[in-house]
Write a structure and sequence with these properties.
Layout: H1 3-34, H2 42-90, H3 104-144, E1 149-153, E2 158-161, H4 163-169, H5 173-176, H6 181-185, H7 189-199, E3 210-211, E4 216-220, E5 223-237, E6 244-255, H8 257-292, H9 301-332, E7 340-342, H10 344-354, H11 356-361, E8 365-369, E9 378-380, H12 382-398, E10 405-412, E11 417-423, H13 455-465, E12 469-474, E13 480-487
Parallel strand pairs: 8-10
Antiparallel strand pairs: 1-2, 1-6, 3-5, 4-5, 5-6, 7-9, 10-11, 11-13, 12-13
Helix pairs in contact: 1-2, 2-3, 8-9, 9-13, 10-12, 12-13
Length: 488
């Protein structure tokens, strides 16, 4: 029975009862009117009329109350069931079904609701299975990577970790997944070192990929291994595609043990060869000195040219072996500093004296810029810093045009640092190579001046060992200025 029929039937019953009550009252009223009031039948007739009116009135009231109680409930109940069903679907309970076949209007609603719930259940099941399959596939891919990898969300909870990382960290998967990396790191030193680097990343940066410069030494699988750590931010496009959102980080550890061993072998080989070469080179230099001694004999012009050529190449070879030895000291961590109090002017005078012959050869004028007021002293390894200044001045002379000039000087800054600088006025360095020139063996493309490509690299290492900096200011066609900054 539909709602319309229910309402029609209910209203019909109420109207019929009202008509019955009115008709009964009218009939009894006519009977009483036709009866003589003084008649003995008048009293019983009135009582009988009142009785019937009361019975019919009471029946009408009972029927009305029954309709008032049952009719709204019969309409409200299916609506309530539909509302509850919708809430269940909203709570992802796709197994919910409605049975409203007793109501004609709601039967169709119930049928459509059940059809919708069934399709949602099928879709959810298929989507869930696809998601589980995709998750399993991703876990398989991550575990197949031979390098340790860890994924974290913004709350520093570990989302995924492969078997290699578990092995290196000496952890179990059930101990870390969906757990706070900071809590776990309290009892795991290696994880604490990895997480500490993440905390140092500025939070205001959306993308903050960075690689830890120094390799991480880890003892795993009964051997010492070296890893290069790289931090990658997980970036996802937000609702507005123009505003990316950071969702977490990935920590990747690249095993560089093999390369570290090769690099160590290379350093040892270069150190050994360089050290062994110094002996025969020194012997050649001694022999040249004996040849140049006129007490041994006089050389003709051709022989003097040959000895000069041998001397120049021997000195160049000696400088290269010295650079190689310095480089191996830095790379092997055996660089030892012997600091002492030194005046900056002493370093400048040493560099000028060491390069005087070369400057005279190319007719280069060396200008000194030094403040008249006293400047602070340096607590440094004067031998190594003098080597740096000598190398910078040698480069400035070689890259300057003949009959040109270079400037060497020093001054003290307001923040109590001493800056020593060497400036040439040659062709300059392309800004693209300002960082690369400090790398081992790097030479600016198109450079015709001979060199090993180690001088600037070693100079930077020596300066940084003193907690200083070595930078360059250069423009094409306007020369270069190298600035060494050390704490006074």
């Amino acid at each position: 029975m539909n709602i319309k029929t229910k309402l029609t039937l209910t209203i019909g019953i109420l109207v019929a009862m009202i008509v019955l009550l009115v008709a009964l009252s009218v009939v009894n009223l006519q009977i009483l009117t036709a009866t003589d009031p003084d008649s003995p039948a008048a009293g019983p007739g009135l009582q009988r009329a009142l009785l019937w009116i009361s019975i019919v009135g009471a029946a009408c009231i009972c029927v009305g109350i029954g309709i008032w109680l049952r009719l709204p409930a019969s309409i409200n109940k299916p609506i309530k069931e539909i509302t509850n069903g919708i809430q269940e679907i909203a709570n992802h309970n796709y197994e919910k079904r409605l049975d409203l076949n007793g109501n004609q209007e709601f039967a169709e609603v119930s049928k459509n609701f059940n059809r919708m719930a069934k399709r949602l259940e099928e879709y959810h099941a298929s989507t869930l299975s696809e998601m589980m399959a995709a998750k399993k596939y991703m876990e398989t891919i991550i575990n197949s990577i031979n390098e340790p990898i860890i994924g974290l969300n913004n709350e520093m909870e570990i989302l995924f970790i492969n078997d290699e990382a578990l092995n290196v960290l000496n952890l179990k998967r059930e101990e870390v997944i969906k757990r706070s990396a900071q809590e776990i790191s309290m009892r795991n030193d290696l994880l604490r070192r990895l997480v500490r680097e993440l905390i140092d990343i500025p939070s205001q940066k959306i993308r903050s990929d960075k690689t830890q410069k120094e390799p991480l030494k880890i003892y795993a699988d009964d051997k010492e291994s070296f890893f290069q750590v790289k931090y990658i931010s997980i970036i996802q496009s937000g609702r507005n595609s123009a505003t990316p959102e950071k969702k977490g980080h990935v920590i990747m550890l690249k095993n560089i043990t093999e390369f570290k061993e090769l690099d160590s072998a290379k350093t040892t080989f270069i150190s050994t060869i360089s050290h062994e070469l110094k002996t025969p080179i020194s012997a050649i230099m001694m022999s040249l000195q004996l040849l140049e001694d006129k007490r041994v004999g006089t050389l003709n012009n051709e022989q003097e040219d040959l000895t000069n050529s041998i001397k120049e190449n021997s000195e160049r070879l000696l400088n290269i072996t010295g650079e190689l030895l310095n480089m191996t000291q830095v790379e092997s961590g055996k660089l030892q500093l012997k600091p002492k109090i030194t005046k900056p002017i002493e370093l400048i005078e040493y560099a000028i004296k060491a390069n005087r012959v070369q400057a005279e050869k190319f007719n280069i004028q060396i200008e000194v810029e030094y403040p008249e007021d006293k400047i602070g002293k340096l607590f440094i390894d004067s031998e190594k810093i003098a080597w740096v200044l000598t190398n910078l001045l040698s480069n400035a002379i070689r890259y300057s045009p003949e009959n040109g000039h270079v400037v060497i000087g020093a001054h003290q800054t307001d923040d109590n640092y001493i800056e020593m600088y060497v400036q040439d006025f040659g062709k300059g360095i392309d800004p693209r190579y300002h960082k690369s020139i400090f790398d081992h063996y790097f030479r600016v493309p198109g450079t015709k001046v001979q060199g090993s490509g180690l001088g600037l690299s070693i100079s930077r290492d020596f300066v940084e060992a003193h907690n200083g900096t070595l930078t360059v200011q250069s423009e094409l066609g306007r020369g270069s200025k190298f600035i060494m900054r050390l704490k006074a």
